[in-house]
Every structure is written in structure tokens, then in C-alpha cells.
Amino acid sequence: MKFNKFNANQIREINKGLSSGLDVSVYRDECFDSEQMREIRLGLKANLDVSIYAKPSFDSKDMQTIREALENGNDISKYLEEGFSSQELYWISKGLKEGFDVSIYANKKFDGYKMAEIFGALKSGLDLSPFDIDALSEYQLQQVILGLRAGIDVSSYADPSNEHMFEDRVKLVRECVGNALASGENVTQQQLNIIAHYKNDGLDTTAWENYKFDRDRLEQIVKGLEKHVDVDVFAKPKFSKEQMYEIRHGLMEDCDVSVYATTDFNAEQMCEIRKGLRINLDVTPYATPEFNMHQMYEIRQAIKEGSDVTLLANTAFDFQQMREIRKGLAEKLDVSVYANPEFSADKMYYLYRGMSEGFDMAKYVDFNEDQLKRIVSGLFEALEVCKKKYGITN
Questions:
Q1: Per-domain residue ranges for the chain?
Q2: Which residue among 42, 127, 171, 380 is least packed, with the fewest CB closer than 10 Å?
Q3: C-beta neighbour count of 206 within 10 angstroms
Q4: In terms of C-beta density within 10 A (0-12 exposed, 13-18 middle, 19 or more buried), how is residue 10 classed?
Q5: Rounded distance between C-alpha atoms, residue 214 and residue 237, angstroms
């Protein structure tokens, strides 16, 4: 096979086709550049009817659009015959892939930009049927769609003869935001302006715009908007500003906040659950309202240390008892010796201390705290004597 008429990139595509056992005669032609060859080769590899697009008149972008449509089971040949551009075919292909009725915008009167606006509206589930899409310019259509996304009544300005749609939409948005949220305690104009800004960009605030949030809680919403998180999750009057903070930060850290985004947990409990989720711990053993924040901390630390928390995750233990059990678990001690809710944290501490030095403390469990303190002290003194006698330094 002679390759002297092809450049290095074309030769590479031909060789790739040969290596895959493809019929490279379909594109082994100097009229195709390497990118066109690649699209034909990929189509052959996917067993597509590449004759639809294996034509020098299609550039590689056109070919890619047609190939991807064919891969998704959509034949766009009729749109090719009608003379749609590569950009327009792209949006028709994406609409077909989504299962949309693309006849809404597969119109030679529309350019690719207008098609993109309509596709985006359909993707968002917006109903454009009440509007004269043909008569609306791309700019006017954009204003209608932004208004719909913001949840305002666009009927007052969605008239093709209206040359001030932007101003009308902005005014409606500001009125909506002001009326709904401005009555909250100590709310600032700056906060309202920021929300209006996002609403003007198409943000749908209908889930929470009728609540009278105070300034601190509205600030959590504003910060959420600025970080592009789903504020609908926490923009609810049932949450305190501290709870909103924990849910917002969980969303920012890509945590599954559904685990704790409920008023069953206070903000401190939410914080402990969030700290576990953000490092991919299994928070199930402690993500229950029955544990307070201190108990949650001890269980979370034990899980982080790789300990089996079956004994530890027991509401019968207070956090100080849990701490002694956790320390024993971390040292692989048999904590069942002292993991007894009837033992005080001090008693647990002395039993743990003895076991930590290798003493058999099971025989001393019936002694009280003061007795155990003296026993452990005596055991340690005897241990030091033995170390000195035999020259043990550690």
C-alpha cells in the first residue's frame, strides 16, 4: 500500500483502521484530512452506516455530530438534506438524544444560538408553548426563559414588540425578591441585591422566597448561592443559622447531607456527622439523634482509628466513658473487661491504665475508683523497681 500521498497523521488513521480489521478503503483518500478519517474510522468501528457522512463536504465537526447521533440511534439525515449547519445539527442531535420533540426548534429560521436557548429550556422542563417562539428574537427568548426559571410571571413582558424586556424582567425580579424577603429581621439591602442578581440570571427561588428569614439565616443562603450549591436543601425556616451553616458546608464538601439535613439533629451533631462524611467514614454507627455531639466525637474518632465500635456505640455510655473505651480499642485491649455502663469514667480509666501496661486488671474490676487508683499506683511502682533491677529502659 502506497502512503507517499498521505501525511503522517493520515497514515496513522489508516494504520489504526487496518489494525482493527476495518475496511479503510472507505476513507483511504487524500480528500479526507486526518480528523475526517478519524470520524469515519470510529463510525466503522461502531458498525455505523458511515456512507451518510463519509463525504469531503462535511468537516470533522459535522462528521462527529452525525456519528454521535447515529451512535445514539438517531438518524439526522433528513436534517442534513435540509441544509442545517454543524452547530444547528449539534442541538438537534442533543435534543433527539434527550427524547425531545425537536420539531419545536428544528427550524431553518432559527440559528444555532436560538436552538441552544430552546434546548436549554426544554432540558429545564420549561413550557414554551404559550409563547410565539418564531416571532421572539434570540435575545427576547432568553429574557422569557430567564424569567420562567426565576419563577416570575413573564406574561406581562413576553411580547415580541416589547423592546424593554430586560428592564421589565429585572424590575419584576427585584420586586419579587424585595416583597418576599425584605420583611425578615435586620435583612440588608446588599443581601437582597445579591439574591436579585442570581434571580436575574435565572435562579428559581420559589421554594423559599416567601419565608421571612432574618439577616443571619439569609446570609447562609447568600453564601450558598455564591458557592453555587443547592440552597433549596437548607433554605427552610425550620433550620437555625447554625444548622444552615453545617448543611451548606456539607454541600460544598460534596457530602450526602441527606444523612443529617433534618431538625432531628442540632447543629453540633450535624457538625460531627459532616466531619465523618467529608473523609468518607461510615457514619451510620453514630448518625442518630440519641448521641450528643461529645458521644458522636468519640465514636467518630474510633471509626477514624479503625476500631470496631460495636461495644462503643452504646447510648448507655457517656462521652467520658466512651473516651476510655476508645483508647483501649485503639491499643487493641480487651475493653470488655471495663466496658460496663455501671463503671464510672474514672474507674474505667484506672482499669485501662493498668491494662495498657500489660497488667491483668480483670481481677480488680470489683474495686472502687479510690482502691483502683492505689492498686494501679502500686503496680506501676513495682514495675519501675523491676525495670531498674533488670536494667530495662523502656
A1: 1-71, 290-394
A2: 127
A3: 13
A4: buried
A5: 10
